[in-house]
Design brief:
Elements: H1 8-22, E1 25-30, E2 35-38, H2 55-63, E3 67-69, E4 91-99, E5 102-111, H3 114-122, H4 124-164, E6 168-173, E7 178-181, H5 183-188, H6 206-214, E8 223-230, E9 235-247, E10 250-260, H7 261-272, H8 288-300, E11 307-310, H9 317-327, E12 335-339, H10 345-353, E13 354-355, E14 368-369, H11 371-374, E15 379-383, H12 390-402, E16 404-405, E17 414-415, E18 419-424, H13 428-433, H14 439-445, E19 448-451, H15 462-477, E20 483-484, H16 486-494, H17 500-514, E21 519-520, H18 527-530, H19 543-558, H20 562-572, H21 576-585
Parallel strand pairs: 11-18, 11-19, 12-15, 15-18, 20-21
Antiparallel strand pairs: 1-2, 1-5, 3-4, 4-5, 6-7, 6-10, 8-9, 9-10, 13-14, 16-17
Bound molecules: adenosine-5'-triphosphate.
The site of adenosine-5'-triphosphate has 18 residues, from α9 and α17.
Length: 589
């Protein structure tokens, strides 16, 4: 609650007004017996303490009732006073100043002459009522002050909240004059562009200003636009929202919020990708090839250079790409995965590059941001890049070379800072030879090649992967599987795993759904695995079979092209002619 001191000027005015009319001095004191206002001989004592003399005031403050003292100096209340018996006051009427049933001060009429005392004594009742009214007026002023102080503090609090927002917020009147803005908005614009006297015209294009002001005509309308803003550092793309602010009689002003686009991307990323948290430790496997993949991922994570991950479907290419992203300082940015096969060719371009409003028939109002832009400061994962149409390969090449993206129908290229990780299961060298894949793009993306071997060529990884999936499905399916029977295990080891780790995951899930108890056995296998021929243990030592499998695995690793065969022959330690002979002999295509 405010103190009486806060309305001291007002109290002085009241005291002087009373004194002028009734020709009797007036004194106002607060609950600490500090003189707040005074007229005549008490005027110079304003601001001084009265605790050595205000014994009558103390009584009024204590009881909260009016008090009339006809014999100042001789009244029992005056006994502690040093002016006792020698008081210059002749008569005194005191009223409490009550606020919310609490006495916060007093107001007194003090007579110094017999004539004044007589006047009051004869009209005591009227003077008491008058003094009560004056005390109420002061109390009312205090309440008003309190209300105003509350408003100021609420306003201050509201401003602090608005300033806490990361989003820029500007309010304007219906003509576009800036009324208010928060600190985030102030930070966004270049110096002196946004001031309390600015107009929207100095911040946005005429079209955007007109769109914003249009919101003022409709209390339900909210618009969203993408805008370019000249910030202190550079030109930044933002999402602008304008919404009407209702007053008592319809829309009175308009709120405009601004948020940088890449920030939105980061939020979407954080909220939408539940498996984005893959780390390098999630890539399981004890094989040398997987150990190398993990090592290389760590080594190249911080680099901006493009990575090309090769491997059959289900070998964990996307998982590896996500791990690289999460290992790098780009992990705060978005991991934007685009599957070039999953999106129809006609849509792929607009998905990747976005478009401006009116770029083509059916283009959305306000345009659309492309995935490459969304991946700004993050990683763009181009899955199945081998399936990307040639005209888009050229556009992607330009993004990689110039680090800029041009929207369909756009005029100015937009700078982007993305790290590209591409993946494919296809033989890009062969595609290149046939003219299906651009050579320049191939060299541009193949800066850091990483191969993930098919599961059939690293069966030593089966055990750890199975344990991992069993553990996961035990939780998911509420099972208690502990073991795999020998027969079950043999089938897994004999199978060729065309679907790789993904297929293994499905096989374990299938088996665990059927299994009761703690062991997975042959009967829980899907028919495809159950029916494979299990070789005799001795069979695995058969020299021809071992040779055939080694050549096959080498052939798969290095590819079927001429170069691949040369590398395979070198790895096998045989001449190229011998390799051709063995390929023919073992009927390897
Ligand atoms: N080494 C591994 N350790 C643990 N899980 C793995 C491993 N490799 C793959 N997986 C799992 O296999 C599944 C398939 O992985 P992912 O989608 O990354 O493969 P991909 O090669 O990108 O497949 P596609 O080419 O079909 O898109 C995922 O569930 C992934 O978690």
């Amino acid at each position: 609650m405010v103190e009486l001191m806060a309305v001291k000027d007002y109290a002085q005015q009241i005291a002087e007004a009373i004194a002028t009319v009734v020709k009797i001095d007036v004194e106002v004191a607060d609950h600490n017996l500090m003189r707040i206002a005074g007229t005549g001989r008490y005027h110079k004592g304003v601001g001084l303490s009265m605790d050595r003399q205000g014994y009558v005031y103390q009584e009024v403050l204590r009881t909260g009732h009016q008090f009339v003292i006809e014999t100042p100096g001789n009244h029992p209340l005056c006994s502690p006073c040093k002016a006792r018996g020698n008081c210059s006051e002749k008569y005194e009427v005191v009223s409490p100043i009550n606020v919310d049933d609490k006495s916060v001060g007093v107001i007194g009429l003090i007579c110094f002459t017999e004539a004044q005392a007589k006047l009051i004594e004869e009209n005591q009742q009227s003077y008491l009522i008058f003094l009560t009214k004056m005390a109420e007026t002061i109390a009312l002023k205090m309440k008003e002050q309190e209300f105003l102080a509350g408003l100021v503090s609420a306003n201050h609090y509201l401003n602090s909240i608005i300033d806490c927002l990361d989003e820029g917020l500007i309010t304007v009147d219906l003509d576009g004059n800036v009324l208010h803005y928060n600190q985030a908005a102030k930070r966004l614009f270049s110096t002196n562009l946004l001031t309390p006297r600015s107009h929207l015209k100095s911040l946005f294009s005429a079209q955007i200003v007109s769109d914003i002001l249009g919101v003022g005509n409709n209390a339900d309308q909210v618009i969203e636009r993408e805008v370019h803003v000249e910030t202190k550092k550079n030109r930044v793309q933002m999402i602008l929202r304008a919404l009407p602010i209702d007053g008592e009689k319809g829309v009175k002003s308009i709120g405009v919020t601004l948020r940088p686009l890449d920030e939105i991307g980061r939020i979407v990323h954080r909220l939408s990708l539940q498996d984005a948290g893959y780390t390098i430790d999630d890539i399981l496997g004890v094989s040398e090839s997987i150990a190398q993949v993990r090592e290389r991922a760590q080594a190249v994570a911080e680099s901006k250079s493009t990575v090309l991950i090769r491997g059959e479907s289900g070998t964990g290419k996307e998982m590896l790409a996500r791990s690289i992203h999460n290992l790098s300082s780009r992990q705060q940015g978005m991991f934007m995965a685009i599957n070039c096969t999953a999106i129809p060719e006609a849509l792929l371009e607009s998905e990747l590059f976005g478009y401006e409003e009116g770029a083509f028939t059916g283009a959305r109002k306000g345009g659309k941001i492309g995935k490459i832009e969304l991946a700004n400061k993050g990683t763009l994962f181009l899955d199945e890049i081998g399936d990307m149409p040639l005209f888009l390969q050229a556009k992607i090449l330009r993004v990689l070379q110039e680090r800029q993206v041009e929207r369909i129908g756009g005029i100015a290229p937009i700078p982007v800072d993305v790290r590209v990780i591409a993946a494919t299961h296809r033989n890009l060298e062969q595609m290149m030879a046939k003219g299906e894949f651009r050579q320049d793009l191939y060299y541009r993306i193949n800066v850091i090649p990483m191969d993930i071997k098919p599961l059939r060529d690293r069966k030593e990884d089966l055990q750890i992967l199975c344990e991992h999936f069993i553990k996961g499905f035990n939780q998911q399916l509420d099972k208690t599987i502990q073991l795999m029977s020998e027969g079950f295990r043999k089938h897994l080891y004999e199978y060729s795993w065309p679907g790789n780790v993904r297929e293994l995951q499905n096989v374990i899930e299938y088996a665990m759904n059927l299994a009761v108890g703690t062991t997975l056995s042959e009967e829980h296998l899907s028919p495809r695995l159950k029916n494979i021929e299990i070789r005799d243990d001795l069979d695995k030592f058969n020299l021809e079979k071992v040779e055939r499998e080694t050549i096959l695995s080498c052939y798969r690793t290095f590819g079927a092209g001429v170069q691949g065969k040369e590398r395979a022959a070198k790895a096998l330690g045989i001449g190229i002619a011998t390799l051709y002979r063995k390929l023919a002999r073992y009927n390897i295509e």
